[in-house]
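Notes from hallway chat w/ T.B., transcribed later so I don't forget. T.B. wanted the structure written out for a chain they're using in a teaching module, and asked if we could keep both sequence and structure tokens in one place. Agreed to drop them here.
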Amino acid sequence: MTTEEAKSIIIEKFGTDDQTAQMIIEKAQIGGEITDEFPLDQWLNLRFLPNCILIDERGYSEMCVDALRIVTSTAATDYGGSRQRDLGQLWADMTRGYLGEFGLAIFLRDKFQIDVKLGHEKGKLADFLPMDVHKIKRVGDLDWRDPLIKVSIKTTKFNGIWLDIPNDQFNHSDIHVQVKVDTGRDHLFAFFKQLSVFKDKVLKRGEDIGSLTKQESSELYDSLPVFRPILAYICGYVNVNDHFFELPYRGKKGRKNFTITSWNGAIRSGDLQRIKEIEGVNGTIKFEGIGKFAHDNGYLFNSGSLNWNDSGLNVLLSRL
């Protein structure tokens, strides 16, 4: 199967544009999901397509409102850092995270007949970090119950190839799931356009006060992104009870620097220095696609190292 053939299938099935389909395939290759042993056609038909769902406008609305409920009571700094985000960016980021969780909820219902309630209420951060699935039941059952294991859901954009779990978060959950969502920088704007917030409010106000002519208003409206269903890809999961080796990396050495392309387990302070010594690197150590992380203590996985097949997931879900 050629890349063009795979792109055509993704575009036809999910309504993505050509650039997004190309990026999805490229990142799957860079992340190690597509390899010589597991080529493009197998990845597409066995891993990618069966593990994708679309989130419609109603689902987006639910997650957007859920995020709005708690955004004003959430710390504005990036987790593990000090960079301040304004309220609009924080809202958009939280909505993206919730979309990943909602995508997994749809996936579990459609594929495994499991209904879940997500933890989208106000509360202490420590109460929610270990467990994103707060209640479960079988489809058709009346009574909800607490899950027997803690499921943590990590949402990333499609251009991300790493599942990064900083500090001691890893051992606070039983399963860590990575969900990739097709939300760029403009998903909230596209949603507002869908609701006519710009046409009926913002742009109309610009016309009323003389800041915009009708033609300028129309051209500006046409330039805004159009809302479309959000593609969510259940990329894979990590079971905390799996066995992990020390320094579980692979990479490629350049003339001076070394790029880590794969990691599957714990990362500790001093590991990169040890790799420099092992590989005889005089330059810098960097991670494929991101350069470096904001921390050097936690657990790290490239998308190609994640578990993803139904047999393993069925075993875990039987414990849920």
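Follow-up for T.B.: The chain has three domains: 3-186+228-243+299-318, 187-223, 249-298. Might be a good example for the class.
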